[in-house]
Amino acid sequence: MKTLTPLMRAVVVHGPDDVRVDERARPTPGAGEVLLAVEWGGICGSDIAYWKKGASGTASLAHPLVLGHEFAGRIAALGDQVTGLDVGQAVTVHPARPVGDGVLPERIAGRTNLYPRVRYFGSAAFDPHTDGGFSEYRTVDADQIRPLPAGVTTEQGALAEPLAVALHAVGRVPELRGRTVLVNGCGPIGSLVVAAARYRGAGRVIAADLSSSSLAVARAMGAAETRDLSAGQVLPEDVDVVFEASGAPAALGPVLRATARGGTLVQVGNLPGTAVAAALGDLVTREITWIGSYRFVEEIDDALRALGDGLDVSPLITHRFPLERAEEALAVAADPGSGSSKVMLRLGSVRTP
Length: 353
Description:
Order of helices and strands: EEEHEEEEEEEEEHHEHEHEEHEHEHEHE
CATH topology of the largest domain: Quinone Oxidoreductase, Chain A, domain 1
Cofactor: Zn(2+)
Family: Belongs to the zinc-containing alcohol dehydrogenase family.
CATH architecture of the largest domain: Alpha-Beta Complex
CATH superfamily of the largest domain: Medium-chain alcohol dehydrogenases, catalytic domain
Mean pLDDT: 96
Protein name: L-idonate 5-dehydrogenase
Distance between the termini: 39 Å
Helix content: 10-25%
Keywords: Metal-binding, Oxidoreductase, Zinc
Pfam families: ADH_N (PF08240), ADH_zinc_N (PF00107)
């Protein structure tokens, strides 16, 4: 009698405006791997880009791709040679894996986010692509597994990855304690930067955006003051530390002007890879230190500690959808008029801790 291979469902993008819930064979863990029963996933801008354009940044689809790099669940099975983890344990995942010998120049030693070739869950940067975690099950290398602290739900754990991005950005400034901070752009990452800055001891956080709903989330995440740029309000002046999280070239001029003389501007939002018009004169005349921030190194561990300490990320979550409504979830996340911040997918049955 022939044994049937167990199947699972996965959110798969096949091309621009073509996302499907496909059936795929349920994977089995090999040596050094863990089988994760995925419970929650958070939709990111790159997921939307693959769905809308068939590409994210310089990475273009050559084959169907399972979306998702923000996800968490419980261990369903352990492969051979895996120790220190248990079936049923609630975990999330570090989604990056450097490709190559891992050696970096001494000046950036340890900064693995700057490694020239990195496989990332839910990315088409390589061929074959690296499938993501928007599926009912996913095998993961055991050393990419991160156990959740006691009391942290898998829904919260799925937000550890974007929180790690925010903590990395905040960590690019040596000392925030007591300082005034401006965050321009209050999408999910910007609002998490607000929370991360407060968690790291910033004295006063001001948030600015064109969307009143995004500003409401930023306030709930710890902003003491907000500026609604769509209503004619302007950015404050002479702010010590500024985080630019919108990625809009048109914002650069006003953001540089808002930064105090001798202050620091951290660029968190991804800027276009093509030529753009931007007013940058204040970078020189105000002697501003302009720092880039890209993904994270091991700050996902810091993110889990922060969640365990009680950092509340729940105001970020505005919508929840089941797996079978993935296309609707992506549409809500992509629609500026929906009032969405972080849109979550329930990918499997969720157990109470």
